[in-house]
Task: inverse folding
């Protein structure tokens, strides 16, 4: 009973924060609502007894990604509110059917599920050692794939940052930047395979 | 008489919170006296005899009765919430620290991770303060803070993970339990322990925005950084949070590397040993603060990404090898 009430309160806050995130014009307020939302998701993990997951959620999302997100907002948007019309207005036409498809999928999944999934193992989910063992045995391939994906993203970010730096310099604008840009992806391959 | 667990936990949290506020209040006096000695001064002297021991109380009362000013162009909701959002994580950090066997609010089996996760939330409050004030210096400070804290979070976590790896557990009481005997302290662990402790101290200085890394409140350029617009009680809350975080980091350092409550004498001396060790770590940090000059933003970032981060990754790998060679105790 208590758990159900707590769940409803937390879920309500999460949904309200998510709505506010989308609907607020002020981007910084939106980002702060995202923190609230991610915190609520961490609280839901806690209610499921997954303490490790909750802490990881906070440390990764509410901490690090939040910081980067806020940083991007502050660097990209000069004023408090967006100015001028959205240059990619036509893209919204594509967004509606895609979003609708995703929503339909979610609804189908929720409706199609009959009962809560039975716990697969005897190990408690907050046990760090058990999670570690699972990650390096049963789920090794997804784990490694994710790390390669993250590494590729990191290399990509470096590449983007470098080419912009190159074009900002007046003398080394054109060919040099593109040479640097084309040289980098080849270098990323062995790095990725090293893992 | 038996007390339901929820109530006893609440009482424990209440006592702990008040104790922490008390210690934090007096640690400011300690720092001022320490700094004064380093500069051949006396420090606060006139409020209370001997040696101005009532000074922190006087400061607190002064801050409480000061006028509360909200700047007209400020983002009111964000501005007013920021001190709270800043303070709560700084205080929550103490929730998982055991001060003696069984003497703590919650000895979670992921205690260290909880500490790291909660203290990572502090930046949100800091950013809210800097943004909400609508002041260019505060905003610059918030930008610098975000920059610095993402840079030093990783070395801090990696350094803190070295004792975790050596113990094979994230539970704080287990980490202390693994350090029995004076030679068992992780700071005395050959090579790895000392390097990890030094890395921890450097990253802690940066995470707490103390002097060699205090670019976000550099008085000479940014007045007081993100809290420049705050006054009265809100300023006091921010200050309290900052010192509480510092104290929490000192406690964690004492727990991870200096054997926590372990020490000679009867068991009830444990919390006192722990406090003394934490104050020792705090004094190391203060010593550095009053000895060095502020370094530039780019130097701070270069130290983190080019030196401290690779070094701590290598250290963590080396620890992993040592643990694996020793038969992987714990795991």
Result:
């Amino acid at each position: 009973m208590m758990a159900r009430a707590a769940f409803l309160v937390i879920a309500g806050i999460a949904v309200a924060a998510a709505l506010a995130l989308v609907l607020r014009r002020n981007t910084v307020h939106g980002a702060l609502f995202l923190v609230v939302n991610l915190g609520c998701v961490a609280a839901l993990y806690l209610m499921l007894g997954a303490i490790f997951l909750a802490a990881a959620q906070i440390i990764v999302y509410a901490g690090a990604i939040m910081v980067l997100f806020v940083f991007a907002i502050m660097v990209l948007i000069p004023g408090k509110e967006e100015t001028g019309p959205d240059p990619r207005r036509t893209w919204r036409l594509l967004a509606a059917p895609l979003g609708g498809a995703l929503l339909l999928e979610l609804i189908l999944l929720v409706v199609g599920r009959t009962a809560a999934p039975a716990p697969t193992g005897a190990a408690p989910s907050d046990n760090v050692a058990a999670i570690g063992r699972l990650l390096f045995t049963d789920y090794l391939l997804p784990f490694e794939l994710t790390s390669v994906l993250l590494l590729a993203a990191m290399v990509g970010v470096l590449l983007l940052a470098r080419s912009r730096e190159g074009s900002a310099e007046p003398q080394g604008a054109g060919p040099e930047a593109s040479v640097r840009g084309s040289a980098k992806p080849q270098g990323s391959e062995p790095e990725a395979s090293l893992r | 008489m038996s007390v339901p667990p929820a109530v006893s936990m609440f009482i424990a949290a209440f006592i702990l919170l008040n104790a922490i506020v008390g210690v934090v209040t007096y640690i400011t006096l300690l720092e001022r006296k320490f700094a004064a000695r380093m500069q051949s001064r006396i420090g606060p002297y006139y409020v209370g005899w001997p040696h101005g021991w009532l000074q922190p109380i006087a400061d607190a009362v002064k801050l409480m009765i000061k006028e509360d000013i909200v700047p007209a162009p400020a983002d009111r909701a964000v501005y007013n919430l920021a001190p709270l959002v800043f303070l709560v994580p700084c205080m929550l950090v103490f929730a998982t620290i055991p001060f003696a066997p069984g003497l703590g609010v919650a000895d979670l089996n992921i205690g260290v991770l909880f500490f790291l996760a909660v203290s990572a939330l502090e930046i949100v409050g800091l950013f809210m303060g800097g943004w909400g004030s609508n002041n260019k210096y505060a905003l610059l400070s918030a930008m610098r803070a975000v920059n610095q804290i993402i840079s030093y979070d990783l070395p801090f976590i990696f350094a803190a993970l070295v004792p975790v790896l050596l113990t094979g557990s994230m539970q704080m009481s287990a980490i202390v339990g693994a350090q029995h005997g004076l030679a068992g302290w992780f700071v005395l662990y050959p090579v790895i322990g000392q390097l990890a402790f030094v890395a921890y101290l450097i990253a802690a200085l940066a995470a707490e925005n103390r002097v060699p890394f205090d670019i976000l409140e550099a008085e000479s350029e940014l007045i007081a950084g993100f809290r420049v617009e705050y006054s009265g009680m809100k300023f006091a809350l921010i200050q309290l949070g900052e010192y509480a975080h510092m104290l929490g980091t000192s406690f964690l350092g004492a727990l991870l590397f200096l054997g926590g409550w372990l020490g000679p004498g009867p068991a009830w001396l444990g919390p006192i040993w722990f406090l003394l060790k934490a104050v020792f770590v705090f004094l190391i940090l203060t010593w550095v603060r009053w000895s060095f000059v502020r370094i530039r933003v780019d130097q701070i970032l270069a130290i983190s990404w080019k030196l401290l981060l690779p070094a701590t990754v290598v250290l963590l790998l080396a620890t992993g090898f040592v643990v694996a060679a020793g038969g992987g105790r714990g795991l």
Q: What stands out?
A: DSSP finds seven helices and no strands in chain A. Residues 140-168 of chain A form the longest helix (29 residues).
